[in-house]
Amino acid sequence: MLYRNIPATGEKLSILGFGAMRLPMTEDGAIDEKRAIAQMRKAIDKGVNYLDTAWPYHGGESEVVLGKALRDGYREKVNIADKLPQWLVESRQDMDAYLDEQLKRLGVDCIDYYLVHAVEGNSWDRVEKLGVKDFLDKALESGKIRYAGFSFHGVAKDFTRIADAYPWTFCQIQYNFLDTENQAGTAGLKYASSRGMAVMIMEPLRGGNLSSPVPPDGVQEIWDTAETSRPPVEWALRWVWNHPEVTVVLSGMNDDAQVDQNIAIASEAMPESLTEQELTIVDKVANKYKELMQVGCTGCAYCMPCPAGVRIPTCFELFNTASMFKEKEEMSKFQYALMLSGEFAGEPSYASQCVECGQCAEHCPQHISIPEELVRVKDFFEQQDMQKIVDSFMSNRKD
Q: Residue ranges per domain, the chain?
């Protein structure tokens, strides 16, 4: 495992962080605690010392399960990152209440890296007026948190002013070879570094879209022009780690093979190790993906829950899969009918249920016009009789 220094403190963090937003699940939709704990401990045993969670992940259960994983001596080996759910905060007192509850969920006395979660211009202005700076000062003084940071999901012009608004130790931004100009982008990465901040990276694989072992048409042909053969996940991660300004890259690992593969890559990915030819190849792949991808959704689920019951990330995931992987188009249509039916989702959750309330778009970190895109999803998938497909499947399963 390779490590990089926190500029403000000199502490060393593993360049790979374990993101606890997409933990393995059981068939009934709960976290598979046994597998999740085993995977987190395996990563720690292999050198990962930064684990990231948040209040809303897995409906609040991510913090609890992470806390269980850190029992039996594992707490002393790692740094915990957790986040203040600023969108739920209505007062200065709320901030203390959420932090205290998070400490309880985790079963610890201190959170090492504490972030104001998912801020952009307007939400930062709101929590700043509510006293978030005083809250962070007091939390640091009391020892409930060791370092203060923020995660960002806004536009570039707001990133710099938020970065300048408080003596942050670190920040967290979305960054991958498709998102060099989206949100904070490369300019934000370099600005944060110039301010002496550590930079933690989320969505390095863009919700897994960049790591498919069978890339879309035309992508693998571009990868194959490289002198060194690498799987897509390695290209994507190495590209992020190639930037010396990056401190930690978070990966939402939920499979043993993912843990092994990511750790292997993190043992070799030095900064500025990709050649000019390799960087040109990555640029070509990025342009190809942009041609093929229908919706720039990363599956973060900040748009959820939908008041009309639409499972928005699933709609977009299946739409992108069908458009990028032509051989999966029919399977995606079948999955759309089944996965979003009442039989499988408890309640129907199709794109056609959207009432265009706009609540989802207000919370989308990617600034996607979600209601408009759901119309496209509906037009693509729902030309068939959804219930007929479901009934046929259920009938065959009973036979």
A: 3-291, 312-398
